[in-house]
Every structure is written in structure tokens, then in C-alpha cells.
Amino acid sequence: MILFCVSLVFQEPEWDVSSAFVANAANHIKLKGGKNRAMQISRENKENEARGRSEIKHWSLQGIEMFEQGQYSQAVDRFTEAIHCDPKDHRFYGNRSYCYWCLEQYSSALADAQKSIQLAPNWPKGYFRKGSALMGLKRYSEAEKAMEQVLKLDQDCKEASSKLLTSRVLQLMELGFEERQSKVLLEKFTTVQAVIAASEAQGKRNTSLLWKCRSLWVGNITFEVTEKDLVDLFKTFGEIESIKVLYERYCAFINFKNANMAAKALVKLQVSTQTAGCSGHCPPQKGPVAPVNGDECYYWRTTGCFYGDKCRFKHIPEQYGRDKKLCQP
Length: 329
Prior knowledge:
By secondary structure, the protein is mainly α. Among the domains are: 50-154, Serine Threonine Protein Phosphatase 5, Tetratricopeptide repeat (Alpha Horseshoe); 209-319, RRM (RNA recognition motif) domain (Alpha-Beta Plaits), CATH 3.30.70. The protein contains 13 helices and 3 strands. The radius of gyration is 36 Å and the shape is flat.
């Protein structure tokens, strides 16, 4: 009987969750489980970051490799992938800007340069990329400011010093100064504004480049001549605002940003021009595209030949413009 009573007394008790020991043990178990989960999440994050860094490095190195091989379009694609992986790294925008510059896609180069500056305002190379893109767009005064900013951040950047001088020379050339004269004047007066203000500089301007009209009329335009052909020919003289091709009248209008750019094109190419006042009234060129008088160029005798020395027909100097008809208002 005693044994029976003992067995009843020592039945397995229920847990008392209010017990201090039990409560502390439960807390310990919960904390341990939470810590394990946190460690797992941290480990996964680190692994993801490592994979991300590896992928970024992969695209970046490939972009550099493509660039060094001169494969600029492929390099653009690689740096674009790197940007997708890390859109906050200013260096990728700077590198892609350089690739676009090499491809002569200056607007895209400028956009990437500006993005790199936005991400890293004190990064000299961002301003250098911006200035280079602006030079390509023939926006020389803006390029000058960008290069000045480069030198504020990095006084020893020789490339920026060189491009700064070039941007100033090109501004003066647009104003009618010769290249050599521009360099000499800048050595003495330093800035474009100082040169313009100097009385001794005024007599050195090439008055043949002082043109009042920023539009050029171009004759001898056939369906074989595309708008892109005209852009490629005239863009070397300055920024083109618009082009209007009138195939039915065998002509086109080239509208530059300013008159000096038009003047340079006029002098270099000897393009037949009309003033802006006759816009929309170009001479009707309905003559034959075949030679006249045997093997003479029809357009050489009228409006001037677009093909110049490459024309397959004869250009007799004394016959130039002999059959040209004046523009009718």
C-alpha cells in the first residue's frame, strides 16, 4: 500500500510556465532560434552581394576589354549591364560616356556624363567627359566651362588644359579669327571675352567670314543625295539646327546655329547661297542631270556642283555659273 501511494505522489508533473527557470529557458530557446534565422539571412545577403559584385566586375572588365579592342558599341552594351547591376556607380556612366564619344554619339555621351556628375559632383573625369561631349556637339562655350571645372578639381590634368585652349580657339574662329591668330591672342589675353574686348584684335578678324545670314541654299540636290549626306558634309563647320530638302526643286536649305558657321561653310565649300529672306524660294533646277555641250557639268554651269572634284563631268573654270538663273521672290 505504501508503494502504491508513493507511485501516485511521484506522477510526472506538468510544466509551470510561470516558473522563473522555465521562462528563462524558453526565452533562451526563442532567442537562439531568432539568432539562427538572422544569421541565415545575413549569410544569404552576403552571398547575394558577393554574386552581385562578381557580376558587376564581369561586365565592367568585359566593357574595358571591348573598348581596348576598339569595339565601342559592344563596350556600351557591357557597361549598360554593369549599370543595371549597380545604377549608383558613377564610373560606369563615365566609361559609357567615353564609348559614346568614340562612336560620335555626342548627345548620349553628354547625358551619361551629366549623370556621372549628378552621382559624384566632385569627380573631375565626369566634367571632362561632359566637356568632350560638348566639344563634339560644337557647343564650345559650354565645353570651356566644363574644362574649367575639371581644372578646379584637378589642376594637373593636362588633357583638360589642352581641351580648354582648343574650345577657346574654336570660339574665336567662329568669330572670324584664323587659328594661328586665335592662339597668339589667347596667349596674351587668356580668355575669349578679353580677346573680343581688346582693340588690337578687331583688325585681325577675317571679314570674309562676317556673314549676316545663318542659312545656306544648296543646289544640285538629286534624290541620290540624302539628308544624312548633307549633315555629314556641313556638320564640320558648326552646329546645324535644321535641314530642309526640296527634291522637286533640286535644292536644300542648311540652317546653322549662327551666321559665322554658315560663313565658314560658304568659304570652304563655295556653296551657292541665298539670304534668309528668300527661304522657300529657291531657283527651279529642272535642267538635265546629263552633261551639256558634250561632257560639261550642267550644275557647274548653273548652281555649282555638289560633287566638286569627284564629279564625272567637266568643270571648266570660265564656264562656272554661266547659265545660273537668279532666285525669283
